[in-house]
């Protein structure tokens, strides 16, 4: 078996994997590309903020619904057919979005884009696990980190620059040539690298998964906007939770489940999943809280808010392949402990923000925090996936991507709720002791600053939990025998 894997890795078509990397990069880039452009789109189509927000919320929901199904798709269909189908949907969606005459057509185009991008990440991860032996996976998964970390962070500043100088439609124009090139290349050059088998689709599992993950993602994503008392928020969370519980029970009773939850019986995969969930919350916390601090309190532009995070994303992109090689040599534990220690310290320092800290200091602090996080996510994830037997790879990659989506939404909602609650109580406290010399806007800014700092402090405590868990991580040197599933 080891000889076969080594032979496979020596004959790995790197050109094909690279083109799939580029496809995944532009797909993930599009998830955040429209964020800054939403006001322009709202003005052009004369729609309300609640409607225009569906261009990003809907994209995320389609991802959340289709990613769990990717385990079935990867096993049932060849990687060539899947990638060409996914890239075709994404390309068609991008072209339609570029000339969409109405908002509804633009929203449909975004759904097509999301349907294509949802399969790309799990598919790419699965191909890398099958194509490379354990001792080389750290390096290749480190390169994969370029896609995972850099693409979401590049979206806002790139979008801000383009919208400031050109039409929002240019955001789609620049993607179309890359998407078409990748699609044509895949049609003529892409080969099948992953095994597949004729398993049957359980329709009820798909329905339960869609309602479960979709309900949780929608509910928690809307909680920060509408508040927890909103019927649409708590009802979708309750329905989603019930559907998810029923779906998990059903999967555990099936001989051929759509999504194999028994992979959590592998201890290193379970620990890696727990740490990934916490890191997703930490990652989303700064992406949500920093723009509020930068724009609402300090008065910087949206472009400045996006550019603040860009150096950190570049550092994560540069460090990811380096961290991958270090993982292959030393294992995940020491990297994760050092990285999480840096993340804990810098997150705590973000909880001490004031009205005077310079923009440059914020960029440096965010970059150091990104450096710390770059040492954790990919090594921990790779170590966890390494413990799974080969037939469980599609399930492991699907669950990894799904948990990151859901935990990001939950973490964002949790921290926004904490921020709002603390801001409200602090505002009341300041109002009681206010003097005539202090304006109401200054008081509200002070209260909001307190809410942001408190949320960062909670985020610090959450990351400390991940640091503690890391001490129980052990290096995986060979996959488990197929006895647990």
Automatic annotation (TrEMBL):
Residues 16-478 form the Major facilitator superfamily (MFS) profile domain. It is a multi-pass membrane protein. InterPro entries: EmrB-like, MFS, MFS_dom, MFS_trans_sf. One of its GO terms (cellular component) is plasma membrane. Signal peptide: none annotated. PANTHER family: MAJOR FACILITATOR SUPERFAMILY MULTIDRUG TRANSPORTER MFSC (PTHR42718). This is MFS transporter. It comes from Cerasibacillus quisquiliarum.
């Amino acid at each position: 078996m080891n000889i076969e894997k080594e032979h496979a890795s020596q004959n790995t078509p790197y050109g094909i994997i690279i083109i799939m990397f580029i496809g995944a990069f532009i797909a993930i880039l599009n998830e955040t590309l429209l964020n800054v452009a939403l006001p322009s789109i709202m003005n052009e189509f004369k729609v309300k903020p609640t409607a225009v927000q569906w261009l990003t919320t809907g994209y995320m929901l389609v991802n959340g619904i289709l990613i769990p199904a990717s385990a079935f798709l990867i096993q049932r269909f060849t990687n060539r057919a899947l990638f060409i189908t996914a890239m075709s949907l994404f390309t068609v969606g991008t072209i339609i979005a570029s000339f969409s005459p109405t908002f509804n057509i633009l929203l449909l185009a975004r759904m097509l884009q999301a349907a294509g991008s949802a399969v790309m990440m799990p598919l790419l991860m699965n191909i890398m696990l099958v194509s490379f032996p354990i001792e080389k996976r750290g390096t290749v998964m480190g390169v994969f980190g370029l896609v995972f970390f850099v693409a979401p962070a590049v979206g806002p500043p790139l979008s801000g620059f383009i919208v400031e100088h050109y039409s929002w439609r240019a955001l789609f124009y620049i993607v179309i040539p890359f998407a078409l090139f990748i699609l044509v290349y895949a049609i003529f050059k892409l080969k099948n690298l992953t095994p597949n088998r004729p398993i049957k689709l359980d329709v009820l599992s798909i329905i339960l998964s869609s309602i479960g993950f979709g309900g949780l993602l929608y509910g928690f994503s809307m909680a920060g906007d509408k508040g927890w008392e909103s019927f649409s928020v708590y009802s979708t969370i309750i329905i989603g939770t019930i559907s998810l519980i029923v779906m998990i029970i059903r999967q555990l009773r099936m001989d051929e489940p759509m999504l194999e939850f028994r992979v959590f019986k592998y201890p290193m995969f379970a620990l890696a999943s727990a740490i990934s969930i916490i890191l997703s919350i930490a990652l989303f916390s700064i992406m949500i809280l920093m723009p509020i601090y930068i724009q609402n309190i300090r008065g910087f532009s949206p472009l400045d808010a996006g550019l603040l995070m860009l150096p950190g994303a570049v550092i994560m992109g540069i460090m990811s392949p380096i961290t991958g090689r270090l993982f292959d040599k030393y294992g995940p534990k020491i990297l994760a402990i050092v990285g999480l220690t840096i993340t804990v310290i810098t997150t705590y320092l973000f909880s001490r923000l004031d009205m005077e800290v310079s923009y440059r200091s914020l960029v440096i602090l965010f970059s150091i925090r990104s450096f710390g996080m770059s040492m954790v996510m990919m090594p921990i994830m790779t170590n966890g996936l390494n413990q799974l037997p080969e037939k469980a790879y599609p399930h492991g990659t699907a669950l990894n991507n799904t948990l990151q989506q859901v935990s990001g939404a939950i973490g964002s909602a949790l921290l926004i709720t904490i921020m709002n609650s603390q801001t409200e109580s602090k505002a009341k406290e300041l109002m009681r002791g206010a003097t005539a010399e202090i304006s109401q806007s200054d008081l509200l800014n002070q209260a909001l600053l307190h809410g942001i700092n408190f949320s960062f402090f909670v985020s610090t405590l959450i990351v400390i939990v991940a640091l503690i868990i890391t001490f129980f991580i052990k290096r995986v040197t060979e996959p488990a025998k197929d006895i647990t599933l």
